[in-house]
Amino acid sequence: MKKGNGLCDVCKGAQPIYRQVYSGVSFCDSCFKKSVEKRVRKTISRYSLLREDDRILVAVSGGKDSLSLLKILAKIEKTYPRASLVAVSIDEGIPGYRDEALRLAADMCRRLGVEHRVYTFEDLFGVGLTEAMSRGILSRLGLGACSLCGVWRRKAISLAARELKATVVATAHTLDDIVQTYLMDILRGEFPKAPIGLRREGNGIIPRVAPLRLIPEEEVVLYAYLSRVPFQETPCPNAQNSQRDLVRTFLAQFESRYPGSLFAALKTIESRIVPREEALTPCQVCGEPASKTICRACELESQVSRLSGEMGQLVRANIGVDDV
Description:
Elements: E1 18-20, E2 25-27, H1 29-47, E3 55-59, H2 64-77, E4 84-91, H3 97-112, E5 115-120, H4 121-125, H5 129-134, H6 137-141, H7 145-163, E6 168-170, H8 175-187, E7 208-209, H9 217-226, H10 243-257, H11 261-271, E8 281-282, E9 289-290, H12 296-323
Parallel strand pairs: 3-4, 3-6, 4-5, 6-7
Antiparallel strand pairs: 1-2, 8-9
């Protein structure tokens, strides 16, 4: 973030607080916030992300991105009386980290007058993430924390959307997040199968959209700061061990040296994506649309439950021997 010289290039009357390097435009506090909100509106319109009568589930983690998205959508939604918002937070079961995030999410929802619901891994899948790690379940499955968390979070949001009768799910994926995901796919040897955050109907899936898809991460951070959106101080203890963290660091450094690279990457990759409609059928366990007879979330739930039961039996057997 860099301060500009002279006056704001938009209103011509206030001191700038931010210079958008890739565009060369300097913004004052007020004009910058209006710029972000205007770009979100334009993104929604350009890609037809939302409809006037949508029941919008906003996935709110409690971080700056999702709380900023909630604040912006709450402002937009006021002009569409037939639309409604509900915020959903997922408690993965990470003590300390998630506790703070849930408190921030609840406080913001109260301030905005938005309904807030919380769903937990323990209630939905029988075990929290930290517990599964501490008991050695994930290591026996050969999974990292983020691998299980990502699959179950997506499933939890889908279940919440159906229960709350949402017609669309809005996530806070920024420009950085989307390019990171595309690059991770490529590094794994797969080209992205479909654009991220664009509305896709059909196959019984509740569509997911990303209204922040054209906003760089650093601009969301500045928007949150200027709009007094609370910042979570506790980082996820598992993030530093993820593949995404490596890609995030690389892309942030590259963008800093070559401004506009993220926009160029997004445009180039998405221009080459050929969307393919998968033949989805209801999961035989939960009924959610899946590409296999049993979805990955239910598959993992079964494996975790089985290992949890086996380890519980071992513990009970050992306790008996010790007691004798």
